[in-house]
Amino acid sequence: MDFKDYYETLGVEKDATQNEIKRAYKKLARKYHPDVSKAADAESRFKSLGEAYQVLKDPEKRAAYDQLGSNYQAGQDFNPPPNWDAGFEFNGGDSAGSADYSEFFESIFGQGFGSAQGGHQQRGYNARGEDHHAKVLIDLEDAYLGSTRSVTLQSPEIDSSGHVVNKQRTLKVKIPKGVKQGQHIRLNGQGSPGMGSAPAGDLYLIIEFNPHAIYRVDGNDVYLDLPLAPWEAALGASVKVPTPAGPVDMKIAAGTPSGRKLRLKARGIPSKEPGDLYVITQITLPPADSDDAKMLYQKMQEELAYNPRSKLGV
Amino acid sequence: MNQKILNGILIDEKTELTLVDLCYACSSAEEWVVELVEEGALEPSNLHSIGKEHAQWVFSADSLQKVLTAKRLQRDLNINLAGIALALNLLEQIETLETKLHCLEISSK
To answer: How far is the C-alpha of A29 from the C-alpha of B77, rounded, in Å?
Structure first.
């Protein structure tokens, strides 16, 4: 287990005042909130911030952490000494709902927290169960063809002795053809069980695409960079173009420049109004790595009299 | 383990959500969602129904994303409803601009 430097996470000095810590946290939390930031690591950064703040904002926890941490550097292997917490009192208190903390955090502050989790509003005895949310990662091809995905969910439940336990369950879910990034699939009755005679809540799955090696997705539309040989671009050609639903033939007009956006209508993500597939041409340079190839280039140089910089006035 | 393949309902442009659907989806009280509407952060797709009974309100699928974002912004950053309305607005604008930028980048490549 690695030691976590909570001061470094929040970008404050070890002797920062509580006020400085609060301001640093608020600033960074706004910056890295997953709903605000598009950065790929926003979610994990936001979680780390929350964890660091959870400790440093509380003078008791901060004192305990300081005592423990004085001999450690961030990333160093960490083992809490036995009975290290003797003499400190934790009242758990305002744990932030369902936040999940690092192993490091749990090893130090774990015990005071378990019972404080949840914090859901209590409804009457005949209340519909709560709705749950989960993320499903799919490949672009799944959106074209439809597929099934196994989703593993962890939900805290209260067992017969009144303890909160994390229950795991796996659902097989059909991913319908034509789903888009950010869309939800609702599974009726797969949320929390209802109380009394009330029905269970629903489960919402939010769709996210795995980044694809060759395609980019924008709503319904899909983009592909298509490399062309200079002679294909110059003379025109019929070339094979991959699409997530399988390759198609595409006509390239003579004299097609690099960066031309060609549209394959309705070859984007299928739906009632299917998206388009945009092919961006990229003319690539054949290597001059043999005598024959060099000769061909030299011949072009001699016979074509082509100045690519004529527009630059040189 | 449940090995049956479940068929969900895809919440797409055509799906209509009621106020109750939205409230359950974000585990919030009806009043909270109504306040979001009054703040202008959220609009029923049948606009003429705003002054009418809440049970008649119908929301489009993007409202679901909006209430969930609103809920998280309030929980995590302690923003009040007016602030949430502003943030949602600005986020939407950023998204529009980024899409435009993306298109321009592609066509100037």
So the answer is: 7
Whether residue B11 and residue A36 make contact (CB cut-off 8 A), yes or no, is no
Tell me: the pLDDT tens digits for A8-39? 999 999 999 999 999 999 999 999 998 888 88
Who contacts B99 (Cβ-Cβ below 8 Å, separation ≥6)?
Answer: A218
Quote the mean pLDDT of chain B.
Answer: 85
- Give chain A's residues under pLDDT 70: 70-76, 79-100, 110-126, 156
Q: Nearest chain A residue to B102 by CA: give it.
A: A218
Q: For residue B26, give its domain range.
A: 17-107
In a domain, A309, yes or no: no
Q: Name every chain A residue with its beta carbon within 8 A of the beta carbon of B31.
A: none
DSSP A235-259: H-EEEEE--TT--EEEEE-TTPPTT
Tell if the CB–CB gap between B107 and A259 is shorter than 8 Å: yes
Provide the edge-to-edge strand list for the sheet that holds A132-138.
A132-138, A203-209, A184-187, B9-11
Is beta strand B5-7 parallel, antiparallel or unpaired with respect to A164-175?
A: parallel
Determine, for residues B6 and A190 on separate chains, whether the beta-carbon distance falls below 8 Å. Answer: yes
Tell me if B3 and A35 make a contact (CB, 8 A cut-off). no
Rounded CA separation B58/B18 (Å): 5
Dump the DSSP string for B58-88.
Answer: EE-HHHHHHHHHHHHHHHHH---HHHHHHHH
- Do the Cβ atoms of A36 and B61 come within 8 Å? no
Q: Domain span at residue A43?
A: 6-116
Whether the ipTM is more than 0.90: the answer is no
Least confident stretch, A289-298, B48-57, B63-72, B84-93: B48-57
Q: For residue B24, give how far its alpha carbon lies from the nearest alpha carbon of chain A (Å).
A: 6
Interface test with B, best of A26, A32, A35, A147 (most B CBs within 10 A): A35
Backbone angles phi, psi at A5, to 5 degrees: -90, 100
Distance to chain B for A162, nearest Cα, Å:
23
In a domain, A94, yes or no: yes
CATH of the domain at B98: 1.10.1660.10
Q: Is residue A221 part of a domain?
A: yes
Considering only residues 30 to 89 of chain B, which have any Cβ-Cβ distance to chain A shorter than 8 Å?
A: 61, 64-65, 68-69, 72-73, 75-77, 87
A134: helix, strand or coil: strand
* CATH number of the domain where residue A112 is located: 1.10.287.110
Per residue in A94-112, pLDDT (tens digit) is 433 445 677 788 777 765 4
